[in-house]
Design brief:
This protein has twelve helices and 18 strands. Strands 10, 11, 12, 13, 14, 15, 16, 17 and 18 form a nine-stranded antiparallel sheet that branches. A five-stranded parallel sheet has the order 3-2-1-4-5, sandwiched between helices. A four-stranded antiparallel sheet has the order 6-9-7-8, sandwiched between helices. It has three domains: 84 residues, 3-Layer(aba) Sandwich (Rossmann fold); 61 residues, ATP-grasp fold, A domain (Dna Ligase, domain 1, 2-Layer Sandwich); 182 residues, 2-Layer Sandwich (D-amino Acid Aminotransferase, Chain A, domain 1). Helix content is 31%, strand content 29%. The longest helix is centred in the last third of the chain and has 18 residues. It is α+β, with helices and mostly antiparallel strands. The chain starts with a strand and ends with a helix.
């Protein structure tokens, strides 16, 4: 069985590492010659819309998936006409445009912050009396890890924020006074079977995820599952999906969803009976889905921009280091480490130590 993946970054790398024990082979399409998934599969180097490379991928892959949602929609449509593509091009199209995404959330009864599409400075200025301050201006497409976003505190911020986006279509959202940020990861197979992992409680800084902690038996679990189930069902989704939400005094408000494996689920590699990466493969290959129950208590810390010494991480008895084979660079995710302990109390101190090490090398 050969799985094609659009993108060859760390998510594709971890999907392949999960697939090797199952006898799955991988082909990646990525513009970068030194893409970090290259050691674990065959790399087709080229643009995502390169006709020759797309033809090779379509001919050789039994199923194609993707590791990020900024793949051109026409590429997914082309591949879907030649081979299986999971998740579907429709899910990709909804997720990669923030306006379509917010509209879709509302259509299926998932609450969101107040929002409005804006395509000019004048439209932004006209929207603000309704949206109110503070607010966030975001590009409708191509935004991730805090890119393409500006916080608006007053009318004086509008011209510079609009100029920063360079006139691309945008969406302005009202600020949500959340108590915490959470996400849920679910998977659905072609038969419609759905499974969920425990809610993850997440900490972001500068729009980039820093820490994610598994919260088994969380009070938000049922509500989070309800929202994610609606997405998975309405999109006739196949594969793993992550839904990010704001928690406001026990009420969840949707932020965005990712039609792929997700950074907040990295703890599942050591902290769940079946990782999100393996379950993504099981879903898209129509294999039985694996159990998602947590194994002990787990959390994940990202390393952004730089790395501490390997021995500093491995000296921690409950830590598991995952290097991506990527050169350090400002704002770049270069590795993560997970922690898994037998009791919740055992997790607190090493998690603080691991986060401190990450802060020391953070170059974001």
């Amino acid at each position: 069985m050969i799985v094609g993946i659009l993108g060859a970054g760390q998510l594709a790398r971890m999907i392949a590492l999960a697939g090797h024990p199952l006898g799955v082979e991988f082909i990646f399409l990525d513009p970068a010659a030194d893409a970090c998934a290259k050691p674990v599969g065959e790399l087709l180097q080229g643009a995502y819309d390169d006709p020759l490379q797309l033809q090779k991928l379509a001919e050789r892959a039994d199923v194609v998936t993707y590791e990020f949602e900024n793949v051109p929609a026409e590429v997914a449509d082309y591949l879907a006409s030649h081979t299986q593509v999971h998740p579907s091009p429709r899910a990709l199209a909804v997720a990669q445009d923030r306006l379509h995404e917010k509209n879709f959330f509302n259509q299926i009864g998932i609450p969101t912050p107040a929002y409005q599409a804006v395509d000019s400075l004048q439209a932004l200025q006209a929207a603000m009396p309704t949206i109110g301050y503070p607010a966030i201006l975001k590009s409708r497409t191509q935004g991730y890890d805090g890119k393409g976003q500006s916080v608006l505190h007053s009318v004086a911020d509008l011209p510079a924020a609009w100029q920063l986006l360079q006139g691309v279509p945008a969406i302005v959202e009202g600020f949500v006074p959340f108590s915490r940020e959470v996400s849920i990861i679910g998977a659905r197979n072609p038969a419609g079977e759905i499974i969920f992992y425990p809610v993850s409680e997440n900490q972001h800084r500068g729009g980039i995820l820093r820490v994610a902690q598994c919260r088994a038996d969380d009070a938000a679990q049922a509500q989070a599952e309800d929202y994610a189930r609606r997405l998975l069902t309405e999109l006739d989704y196949v594969g793993v999906l992550a839904l990010e939400m704001f928690d406001i005094e026990g009420k969840l408000i949707a932020n965005e969803f990712a039609p792929r494996v997700h950074n907040s689920g990295h703890w599942t590699i050591e902290g769940a009976q079946t990782s999100q990466f393996e379950n993504h493969l099981r879903a898209i290959l129509n294999l039985p889905l694996g159990p998602t129950q947590p194994v002990g208590h787990a959390a994940m810390v990202n390393f952004i921009g730089g790395l501490p010494k390997t021995e500093q991480i491995l000296a921690m008895p409950d830590a598991h280091l995952h290097l991506y084979g990527k050169a350090p660079r400002k704002g770049r995710k270069v590795a993560h480490a997970t922690l898994r302990t037998n009791t919740a109390g055992q997790l607190t101190e090493p998690l603080a130590q691991l986060a401190a090490l990450a802060n020391q090398v953070d170059d974001s």
